[in-house]
Amino acid sequence: MANQRPKAIIFDIIETIFALETVRPELVRLGLQASDLETWFAFGLRDAFTLNATRAVKPFPEILKGALAQLLAKRELDPPVEDRERVFEAMRNMSAHDDAAEALAILRDANLPVYALSNGARASTQSLLDNAGLTHFFTDLLSVESIDQFKPSKPVYDHGVAATGQRAADVMLVATHAWDCHGAKMAGMQAAFVARGQVYPDVMVAPDLTGVELLDVAHSIVNLNAPAER
Amino acid sequence: MANQRPKAIIFDIIETIFALETVRPELVRLGLQASDLETWFAFGLRDAFTLNATRAVKPFPEILKGALAQLLAKRELDPPVEDRERVFEAMRNMSAHDDAAEALAILRDANLPVYALSNGARASTQSLLDNAGLTHFFTDLLSVESIDQFKPSKPVYDHGVAATGQRAADVMLVATHAWDCHGAKMAGMQAAFVARGQVYPDVMVAPDLTGVELLDVAHSIVNLNAPAER
């Protein structure tokens, strides 16, 4: 069956809209390698998913702080707390990807309502979007805080879908993380993968769309056939 | 309340009993950095926990293959399949930590039954223990395969506890992974953390015991007060 155009779009935020690259030099300043950005974030997700699986969720920044402490110890580094804090300051000041505004404008011009759904806190998501001048593109910012679970758990996607007022099959998640696209697919949604050179693993449910950048994904979405009226 | 000596011990296998260090040079041969060992394994756990959360579990080696493909693409490397396979061959030939046999002997001499519970397959766990001459220390090898979930999900620990015939509170998990100790604690078990220089994150439930190496943990366990008879 050919894909049908979704009636609402839910965007992941960290890495999908905002680049973690501003954080990389701060990790190097702590003595870590540039390539440890991926290690740190993977440690953070591993631990977030652990807390999720045991229904013992903590705020994502606290989890990332613990992940940084684990990574620094693994690399036998022990920088002072104030130096570590610069990593999180850089994260609060992430820049949007160059094509984010144009991609969001394409969806707006196609009358597709757009929502944000991050594993981060609502307030920090709001702040990132405000600083980047992107808030006006979003119909609403949805928070995992009200669910007390993280993506890729189904209740989080269900919460996002409910906010759009659409059926899950008519809502598309856009993310640059395979694990997030997989979670959305398992929750009955459509999913678009922003690849940026990444490989999508075979063990996960494939996305409906893959684009190299946000702009490719936005173009692909509006080029899908409109859903049949019910 | 002082800790009481457990009546049975469940060991994690990969990294806890066997060192991943044999894999590190194989990653370097693929063009990755030595420090990418941690990145690769964290990618694998992140993806395993994703599949766990969505009840779409696949065998752990397949997940690790997907994690390696993602990491290689992230580092803009594309080695041939047969070169990648050497990583998994090295993993099948991991060596036990130097103090594993002595630690297991201490527990045996204290009449504490010992079980293995890995997120890996039963067959590969059996093969690792056989090659290392450690099988005779184990009362049984328990498998996540019969549960179709991974640690840190509670049903996996429940399965392990049931096999020991003891109450969860009288069974101790030994692992060098904070996420595994946390999972055991959340399932009502005791947990011992083999630190090996690692930091245990604040966001997780603390273990009952921490030792630098397996031998420290084994000594600490047998030095605990014996549980009261019921």
From TrEMBL, chains A, B:
The lineage of its organism: Bacteria, Pseudomonadati, Pseudomonadota, Alphaproteobacteria, Hyphomicrobiales. It comes from Fulvimarina pelagi HTCC2506. Its EC number is 3.8.1.2. Catalyzes the hydrolytic dehalogenation of small (S)-2-haloalkanoic acids to yield the corresponding (R)-2-hydroxyalkanoic acids. The keyword Hydrolase applies. Coiled coil: none annotated. This is (S)-2-haloacid dehalogenase. It catalyses: an (S)-2-haloacid + H2O = a (2R)-2-hydroxycarboxylate + a halide anion + H(+). It comes from the Bacteria. The keyword Hydrolase applies.
